[in-house]
Amino acid sequence: MLRHLLFVLNPVSGDISKTDLEDTIAAYCQQRGRTAHFHHTSGQDDLAQLQARLLRHAYDAVFAAGGDGTVNLVAQALLGTPLPLGILPLGSGNGLSKDLGIPQDIDEALPLIWQHRLRTIDTLRVGGHFAAHLADLGFNALVVERFDKGDTRGPGAYVRIATQEYIGYEPATYIIETDRETWQGKAFMLTIANANTFGSNVIINPNGQLDDGEFELCLIEPFPGAAAPSILYHLYTSAFDASNYTRRLRCRKARIQVPGETQVLVQVDGEPHRLPTPIAVDIQPGSLRVLVPVPAN
Ligand SMILES: Nc1ncnc2c1ncn2[C@@H]1O[C@H](COP(=O)(O)OP(=O)(O)OP(=O)(O)O)[C@@H](O)[C@H]1O
Question: DAGKc domain spans which residues (predicted)?
């Protein structure tokens, strides 16, 4: 039984107050013979702080209570340890928890603390950064960066920024060499996907498996404005491959060049980074243990 549980709380994620939540979690654990410990992120030096805490204290599992950024932080701190990651989805983007079938309602997610199944999944390294879920280059990375810098949150702000950026957006050229093939061309966006679904519910990589030792490069090629509604429709209906403007490359490793650019904007698990080119991507098979709901009979 997982007895000593550490909850890593991001106090600002998703604009959700977490003051009462701590009491709820502590009582919930106590009633079931578990002990809850809490760690608050500060936004500064969080990885080193969490790693230091994990060296000082013995826990049986660590829960990320926040969005994909908090999940990325906790997952990274757990690499190389036998400890499993639990997720309480409390961010504006909760993509990995959706892909793992974790309920999005916090009251429904709490039972994961004591009823769960252990699953081992792959993670990615993207340009030297750890990614547990999705990374991308191109249009979405640009929107994520602007969203990150802005002071408004929520899906409304994302759509507003996306609409502004879409007008006049110039797709870049990419040269992608994988362990299987080479592809060269312009792309509106290029998603590096171990998982399936963005926090926004866009299904960028239908049927991609989190534990198959492979990942997918999901390309949306330049398209005329008139095709945008049908592409969006395909993205929300698990029909990525049905569009004339999409393609997926499945692989274990890839090298992405962007001719003429010495650095490029890359979004990794919701956080924007400017990374030197070429970008190397590798799958790290079976590198993370996660707690997932027990399937209903
Ligand atoms: N105490 C804090 N104050 C300010 N920022 C913080 C704090 N703790 C963590 N952060 C920042 O929160 C971000 C991660 O947020 P997370 O993805 O968990 O939630 P989110 O609501 O989905 O995030 P966002 O809305 O920013 O995408 C990281 O950039 C991290 O540096």
Answer: 1-129
